[in-house]
């Protein structure tokens, strides 16, 4: 029988994808994912539980495991496997199990190598290792082209969809559920998330990006993550809010550069723009007056 401790850690890991160390937030996120894509939600849960169980089996840091920090990359691997992986369910499950099991090992290695949070580097490494072989976007490009039109209503919903795209879901309902989970954990962090996604979408429009890409949230998710990272790890201040907005714009700019480059190889750039910008922001403490890293990162309301 599955131990409640393992389920608790795996549920927290669902929330830790977006910096929420909360079992309740993880549950709300899972339900929100299921509303948008039930298969993806199941793969995300499987990936989270697999990564968490692997970290326990090989004896990795117990506190990090219980806080969900060794499972969230596995959840994202499950999301990517559902969308970009094999459509045949047994292969999809196998991809999730193998990929998720590798993430806590990579996280442990990165902890020794990096002097900052690990972000979603492990997810990117594991997912891209597989996707660069299968090149799923090339296969979709060879298929039938479906014509779509995007209006002002679609554009207005793009920040919400951008938040759902953190989990590779294209649904404003899922985005709204995730925002509700964030707001319940920290209202100010919800402002970072929605504001960051909106800035990313606006940057896409102003840069002349394909409006359909903006409307399905592709320009918003990296920016939302970067803004949330700043809100989570820095003490709340006017300088932090400026950095949050700047990181969202920088993530969008980097996404605009990476998207065609990775697309040429038939793969998405996933959360590489977020990881790169968040790493740069984290290193700014001591260089810009007014920016201070929190002693025990939690949320803008509690950071000190």
Q: Helicity level, as a percent range?
A: over 70%
Overall structural class, as computed from helix and strand content, comes to mainly alpha
Shape verdict: globular
State the oligomer: single chain
Characterize this entry briefly.
The protein is mainly α. The protein is built from 15 helices and no strands.
Task: Name the descriptors.
single chain, mainly alpha, 304 residues
Report what the structure shows.
With 304 residues, the chain is mostly helical. It has helices at 4-16, 23-36, 38-57, 62-66, 72-84, 89-113, 121-134, 136-142, 152-164, 172-185, 187-206, 211-215, 221-233, 238-263, 272-282. Helix 3 packs antiparallel against helix 5, helix 9 crosses helix 11 (187-206) and helix 13 runs antiparallel to helix 14 (238-263).
């Amino acid at each position: 029988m599955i131990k409640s401790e393992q389920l608790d850690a795996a549920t927290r890991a669902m929330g830790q994808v977006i910096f929420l160390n909360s079992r309740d937030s993880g549950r709300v996120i899972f339900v929100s994912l299921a509303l948008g894509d039930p298969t993806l939600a199941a793969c995300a849960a499987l990936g989270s539980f697999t990564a968490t169980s692997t970290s326990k089996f090989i004896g990795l840091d117990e506190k990090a495991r219980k806080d969900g920090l060794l499972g969230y990359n596995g959840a994202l691997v499950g999301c990517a496997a559902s969308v970009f992986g094999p459509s045949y369910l047994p292969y999809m499950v196998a991809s999730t199990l193998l990929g998720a099991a590798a993430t806590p090992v990579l996280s442990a290695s990165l902890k020794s190598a990096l002097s900052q949070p690990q972000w979603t580097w492990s997810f990117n490494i594991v997912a891209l290792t597989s996707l660069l072989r299968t090149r799923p976007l090339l296969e979709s490009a060879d298929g039938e082209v479906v014509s779509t039109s995007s209006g002002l209503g679609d554009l207005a919903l793009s920040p919400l969809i951008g938040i759902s795209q953190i989990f590779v879901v294209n649904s404003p309902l899922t985005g709204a559920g995730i925002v509700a989970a964030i707001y319940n954990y920290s209202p100010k962090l919800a402002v970072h998330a929605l504001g960051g996604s909106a800035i990313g979408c606006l940057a896409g429009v102003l840069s002349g990006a394909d409006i359909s890409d903006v409307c399905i949230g592709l320009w918003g998710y990296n920016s939302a993550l970067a803004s949330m990272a700043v809100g989570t790890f820095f003490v709340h201040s006017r300088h932090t809010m400026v950095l949050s907005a700047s990181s969202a714009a920088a993530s969008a700019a980097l996404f605009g550069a990476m998207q065609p480059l990775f697309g040429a190889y038939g793969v998405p750039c996933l959360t590489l723009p977020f990881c790169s910008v968040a790493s740069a922001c984290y290193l700014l403490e001591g260089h810009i007056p007014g920016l201070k890293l929190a002693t025990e990162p939690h949320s803008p309301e509690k950071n000190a």
